[in-house]
């Protein structure tokens, strides 16, 4: 039993997992698929976590042991599981801000998603783990958590049928958001990026129009495509600081900007007059909540989200660093990367 341990940029080591004995209210699963998230890439490349650590949280697996007090899961069940659990009782939780709960980031699966076997603590068994139906693949199961994150973001923006939607960034999250925007009956879903391959993938999953951001003026194209109205909803899905300023120039009067990616700069110039004169809003969304997993699962079951069109690469656990290097290179033809025990490109 091995896990991939992060020590530094370009430095991962395969190591024995060690003792994963479970308590009576816990579950042990065998990892079948773990998606490579943009935050995993950010942590590994920018060294924002304290090593040694096992990353990974978009998990699908099979139950191989269940404690005597676990009633809802049995050995052999195919499951998904997410990594953080709120307390449900603090000030933030009572206001519906579950991902801001002090307990949220303190909880995690053991040792992490990029491991052959994973101990699922009792809180996770109760609140963030669910069974995968027969009609969904393990790869689809690994998409429950990132899709739930997108649903949490959409809760903040109140998209209406007929809205003009602009998504800045055609990566894995942007392509999930394209499909959700169409599901919620947007009139147009406009997507910008600098990677032509990702823009093609964006069209495959339902983008109405795409903009090559390094060759075209995004604001001019948005104005042209919306007859000067602008985008009612602008979603920032790439962690590039200047996109906030760009979003502020593209959003329509009365519109909303959703910040769905971390920025590397704190000082970003924006046209602040628009808050008062145009009644625009800027909101943020971090991670997901336990209440987003069931809707995410149903959307996958009903085929609203096309996982097959998104997955471009599969790597074995031992090649995690190679997977991250590829996924981080914005010039490559890559979208969604999955880590599987016996994976291959």
TrEMBL record:
Query: Per the record's keyword annotation, is Nucleus included, yes or no?
Result: no
The keyword Metal-binding appears for this protein: yes
Q: Which SUPFAM superfamilies match?
A: GroES-like (SSF50129), NAD(P)-binding Rossmann-fold domains (SSF51735)
**Annotated ranges, domain Enoyl reductase (ER):** 9-335
Cofactor(s) for this UniProt protein: Zn(2+)
A Pfam family the protein falls into: ADH_N
PROSITE patterns in the record, alphabetically? ADH_ZINC
Q: Which InterPro entries match?
A: ADH-like_C, ADH-like_N, ADH_Zn_CS, ER, GroES-like_sf, NAD(P)-bd_dom_sf, Zn_alcohol_dh
Which Gene Ontology molecular-function terms are recorded? Answer: oxidoreductase activity; zinc ion binding
Annotated keywords: Metal-binding, Oxidoreductase, Zinc
Family membership: Belongs to the zinc-containing alcohol dehydrogenase family.
Matches recorded under PANTHER family: L-THREONINE 3-DEHYDROGENASE
Report the protein name in the record: Sorbitol dehydrogenase
Species assigned in the record: Oceanobacillus sojae
